[in-house]
Amino acid sequence: MPRQPENSDFQPHLQLSIVSPPAGQSPVNVLILLHGLGDTKQSFTQLARQLALPETICICVQAPSPLPFDLGGFHWGDDITFDQSSGTMDYDTGFEKSSRVIKEDVIEKVLLQACGYRPRNILFFGFGQGGMAAIATALACKTGFGGIVTIGGPLPSSLSNADDKEGKNQTPVLVLGGSSQSLITQSALTSLKKAFQTIQYTKWPRPGDDMPRSRDEMLPIMKFFARRLQSRSGVPKDAVEVG
Predict the structure, then answer these.
(1) Alpha helix locations (H) across the chain?
(2) In angstroms, what CA-CA distances link 232 with 28, 72, 130, 144?
(3) Is 95 exposed, middle or buried (0-12, 13-18, 19+ CB in 10 A)?
(4) pLDDT at site 68
(5) Which of 129, 153, 240, 243 is deepest in the core (most CB within 10 A)?
(6) pLDDT at position 240, please?
(7) For the chain, which residues score pLDDT lower than 50?
(8) What percent of the chain has pLDDT over 70?
(9) What value does the CA radius of gyration of the chain take, rounded to a whole number of Å?
């Protein structure tokens, strides 16, 4: 049985918060939450408390790089660039640094080695640029995780032509986005399907890739978690897991 990670397990440069499972439940699963461009860990810490997923510990990681010009918030990209036509910040600026930090300093050193989790019991929830960071991390690890939920976060362009001789990544991915004004286009879905074995897509009947606004929009996410989260409730202590 894996043990629950603590803040002291992580290197000091990591800014994160840990939300324990509901009272009395063992941390069978880990959900890594990655906020969107310009945000901080605080908003997803509150989200993790609201989700209260059974037998699941949530780790809300703050992006490693602050935004320039005292804008506040943080970003997951390797660089900061601005769209010349709109003047907005570009989401897709490379994810080598952030994926390496999550892969090595969160997953490998702490969750796998120190705490004893298996990749199958580790899931990701990412919004926008955070979803792209989750996808980049899973591909960098070259293993199958429990699942990825990405809202408005497509495959990073730097990985669209990656030559993976081991075949498609086995991590199931739930992709969500708006019916228009969305980064989840048909070409974006095609690219994801080339990289991952299983892609499930939910198109909301509204424009934009904002966070869920209603129970109906949240329902596909909760169904995905219900299928992918593992449980040991009711399993005898001396039971042996097979497979």
Answers:
(1) 41-51, 96-100, 129-141, 186-195, 215-228
(2) 7, 41, 30, 21
(3) buried
(4) 84
(5) 153
(6) 38
(7) 234-243
(8) 92
(9) 17
